[in-house]
């Protein structure tokens, strides 16, 4: 059975109403028979003959039998009508109470049979409609919205079928929109969560980098302070060293002057030694001449010859000593000359060192000023970095909260989509 149109109620013609004919025919025959019997009985009683009396008795008996027959026919007809009527009343009562599984067993070709068929048709058609609608609603409750729409319902069934079909169409559209929206929400929340996680990770890395930078700047600031202190100390050291270099330069000048005096004195001594050497040479010649004269004098000049020899030896030693002294003085003069050159070079180096010390001292003063300014700038940078670090930490916390909320939204969207996917929709 595809729809209610397949159900057809058999209809009887008026000529098929046999109960009415049977009742009418039975009562007519009974009435005629009783009337005849009664008439004959009356005639027999009025007659005085014995045979007529016997016939009258027979007629009376027949009349009694007829009456009994009518009574029997009546009860038979009543039984025939009341039993199916009671069954139909019981079926109608249960039908009114919502029981559509009532089984009407009475079948006949008369009016009661037609009424029973009409009851069966009504219950069958209503049971079919209710079962089909119930099955649809059960499928809908189970999540199956791919059902075909109800068709073939007419009369008062049509609005019910239309309402069920409208519900199916509306639920299909709603769940399709839910699936589409949940997918979009899931994708969007995943993108937001991914972006928030990247932002949180970037903020965390940035915060870590800022902390490292802050630590580095603090270390640099400490080093700058230490460098400033070292520069200040170096300035005092350089000032002291400059004073010492200047003092050493003065002493070197004095030493140069002394060495120059030594050189002059050595030259004077060299001249004197040359005079002594010349005197020794002349003395040696005189001693030689004296020895010659003593040899000429013979024995008288022997003692003088000895003195002349001693004088000559002394002159020779004096000449040797003069030569050695000359050599020593020349070496001394040479060394003094070398020392003077070295001292001059040292003096020039000290002068250059003094000038460079002055330049270094000026440069260090500038470095000290720059270090002080750098320390001030680093202090300002440190304050700015601390403010940036606070903002980055706030952004990191906000990004983490946003990522958590997006992940929760994505999870809820997935749950919604999972639940929506359990519903079977139309293609």
Describe what this molecule looks like in 3D.
Residues 181-410 form the Methyl-accepting transducer domain. The protein has 427 residues and is mostly helical. The chain folds into two domains: 4-130; 178-421, Helix Hairpins. Helices cover 86% and strands 0% of the residues. The protein has five helices and no strands. It has helices spanning 18-46, 50-96, 111-141, 157-297, 302-421. Helix 3 (111-141) runs parallel beside helix 4 and helix 4 (157-297) runs antiparallel to helix 5. The longest helix has 141 residues, at 157-297. The model is unreliable at 7-17 (pLDDT under 50).
Structural class: mainly alpha
Main sheet characteristics: none
Percent of residues in β-strands: under 5%
**Gap between N and C termini, in Å?**
26 Å
Shape verdict: rod-shaped
* Mean pLDDT, all residues: 71
Fraction in helix:
over 70%
Task: Kindly list the characteristics that best describe this protein.
0% strand, 427 residues, mainly alpha, 5 helices, 86% helix, Helix Hairpins
């Amino acid at each position: 059975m595809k729809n209610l149109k397949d159900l057809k109620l058999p209809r009887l013609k008026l000529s098929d109403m046999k109960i009415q004919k049977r009742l009418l025919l039975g009562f007519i025959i009974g009435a005629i028979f009783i009337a005849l019997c009664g008439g004959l009985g009356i005639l027999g009683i009025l007659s005085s003959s014995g045979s007529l009396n016997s016939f009258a008795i027979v007629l009376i008996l027949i009349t009694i039998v007829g009456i009994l027959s009518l009574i029997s026919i009546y009860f038979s007809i009543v039984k025939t009508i009341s039993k199916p009527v009671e069954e139909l009343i019981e079926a109608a009562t249960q039908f009114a109470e919502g029981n559509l599984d009532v089984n009407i067993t009475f079948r006949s070709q008369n009016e009661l049979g037609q009424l029973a068929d009409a009851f069966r048709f009504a219950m069958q058609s209503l049971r079919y409609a209710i079962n089909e609608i119930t099955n649809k609603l059960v499928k809908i409750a189970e999540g199956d919205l791919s059902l075909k729409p109800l068709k073939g319902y007419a009369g008062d069934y049509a609005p019910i079928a239309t309402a069920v079909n409208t519900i199916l169409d509306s639920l299909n559209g709603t769940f399709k929109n839910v699936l589409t929206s949940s997918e979009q929400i899931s994708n969007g929340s995943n993108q937001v969560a991914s972006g928030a996680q990247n932002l949180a990770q970037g903020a965390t890395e940035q915060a870590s980098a800022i902390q490292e930078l802050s630590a580095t700047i603090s270390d640099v600031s400490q080093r700058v302070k230490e460098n400033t202190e070292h520069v200040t100390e170096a300035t005092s050291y350089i000032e002291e060293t400059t004073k010492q270099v200047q003092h050493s330069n003065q002493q070197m000048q004095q030493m140069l002057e002394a060495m120059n005096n030594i050189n002059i004195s050595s030259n004077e001594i060299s001249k004197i030694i040359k005079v002594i050497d010349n005197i020794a040479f002349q003395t040696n010649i005189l001693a030689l001449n004296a020895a010659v004269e003593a040899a000429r004098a013979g024995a008288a000049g022997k003692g003088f010859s000895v003195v002349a020899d001693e004088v000559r030896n002394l002159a020779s030693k004096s000449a040797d000593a003069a030569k050695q002294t000359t050599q020593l003085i020349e070496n001394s003069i040479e060394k003094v000359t070398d020392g003077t050159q070295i001292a001059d070079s040292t003096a020039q180096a000290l002068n250059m060192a003094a000038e460079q010390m002055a330049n270094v001292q000026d440069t260090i003063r500038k470095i000290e000023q720059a270090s002080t300014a750098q320390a001030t700038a680093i202090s300002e940078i440190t304050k700015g970095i601390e403010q940036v670090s606070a903002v980055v930490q706030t952004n990191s916390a906000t990004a983490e909260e946003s990522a958590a909320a997006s992940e929760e939204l994505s999870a809820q969207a997935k749950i919604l989509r999972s639940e929506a996917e359990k519903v079977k929709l139309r293609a």
